[in-house]
Specification:
This protein has 10 helices and 18 strands. It is globular. Helix 1 packs across helix 5, helix 5 crosses helix 9 and helix 7 crosses helix 9. About 25% of the residues lie in helices and about 25% in strands. By secondary structure, it is an alpha+beta fold. It binds cobalt (II) ion and zinc ion. The site of cobalt (II) ion has 3 residues, from loops.
């Protein structure tokens, strides 16, 4: 294994450029360019499908079975629905926006020519709030964006139209040696880990696909067609998961904790009609690899929310799927927080698993003959 690619410094640099890139669902182009640049020199082939999913294949020593390592490129955002005659933009959310965190945020709006226009989500000063208004949280539908324009014509001239996508504008900052804050760690953190692992593995027996998907935040759309296309023997999805280990939450509701290592998912959305029961042999093998290499890990059951792995698991006749998550605080806010040591643990686990798994074992996950 080329250990540098699953090390903290490489992952931090990569996370920074991925996180700071613009890429709401359906507009992942800038993120995809970075992924291509990172993987093209180590892959046997690289291609992009009609939706924008990116595939990179590294052939194995033996072949005969393939492993899909996947993470999504898109982030939550907004899309312009209306420009009023004073130049304010009305928007609809892309993905799960929380009204509690969006007031007063700075954003970027992608203009027709691809340039990014600075804007701010307007907020009401306390001085002009009615007494009961001060206690309420405005709805996402009441959000407007101020790009400094004074008329619809000026907005038009800038190149912003109905359909222009919007994302938060935030740089990555290091809070301390091991802790970073930034936007879109969901799922640029998972993407960094997958890229690192894909670059690090050498002489692995199985074929390995890196798949960077689109449109996860709007319903796991890219993953579904991507998994169908390559039909892997098994898939490991990599995403952030909730670390609710903060004031106001009882310990039993934490889901995961920062600093306790990669989360290996057992299930998500267990009470609902759509979610994942991770393929058990695959999940247990991930645990075994972590244990045998002294990588601390935590088991995860997430009660609300799911990931690309759910769509992959139900593709074709069923693809064995598991998830390794990066514990992250304040997910779907412009200031998500994670530990680099957890991220490094995820990347290492993926690389070690890929190098150690045999084609026969992987292929055997699919069907076992009873008679
Ligand atoms: Co998300
Ligand atoms: Zn995600």
């Amino acid at each position: 294994m080329k250990g540098g690619f699953v090390g903290k410094e490489y992952l931090l640099g990569l996370l920074r450029s991925l996180s700071e890139s613009f890429g709401p669902s359906g507009f992942e182009d800038a993120v995809r360019e970075i992924v291509i640049k990172e993987v093209e020199s180590v892959a046997d082939s690289v291609w992009v499908d009609s939706m924008g999913n990116l595939f990179a294949l590294k052939r194995g020593r033996k072949g005969g079975a393939s492993l899909m390592l996947t993470a999504h490129m898109d982030e939550i955002g907004f899309i312009v629905t209306h420009v009023d005659n004073r130049g304010f933009l009305r928007v609809a959310p892309i993905g799960g926006q929380s009204p509690r965190v969006i007031q007063g945020q700075r954003v970027l709006v992608r203009a027709r020519d691809g340039s990014l226009v600075k804007g701010v989500i307007g907020s009401k000063p306390p001085h002009v709030m009615k007494p009961d208004e001060a206690k309420q949280c405005p709805e996402v539908r009441d959000v407007y964006i101020d790009v400094g324009a004074t008329s619809a014509q000026e907005v038009e001239r800038i190149g912003i139209t109905v359909g222009s996508p919007v994302a938060f504008e935030r740089g990555l900052e290091r809070l301390n040696e091991d802790t970073v804050v930034g936007k879109a760690f969901d799922d640029r953190a998972g993407l960094a880990a997958v890229i690192g692992a894909f670059k690090a593995v050498e002489d692995q027996a199985v074929d390995v696909y890196l798949v960077a998907t689109v449109q996860e935040e709007v319903g796991l759309r890219g993953a579904q067609v991507a998994a169908y296309k390559i039909s892997p023997s098994a898939a490991i999805g990599v995403d952030t998961t909730i670390a609710a280990d903060v004031p106001g939450n009882e310990e039993r509701d934490w889901v995961t904790r920062l600093g306790a290592g990669p989360a290996i998912k057992v299930a998500d959305n267990p009470a609902s009609f759509y979610g994942l029961m991770a393929n058990r042999p695959l999940r247990e093998k991930l645990e075994e690899v972590a244990r045998s290499h002294g990588i601390p890990y935590q088991l995860e059951v997430l009660q609300g929310g799911t990931t690309d792995a759910s769509a992959i698991a139900l593709t074709k006749e069923g693809i064995p799927a598991a998830v390794v998550s990066v514990p992250t605080r304040y997910v779907h806010s412009p200031s998500e927080v994670l530990r680099l040591s957890d991220l490094e643990g995820v990347a290492k686990l993926l690389a070690l698993f890929t190098e150690e798994v045999s084609p026969d074992w992987l292929a055997g996950l699919s069907t076992s003959r009873v008679k």
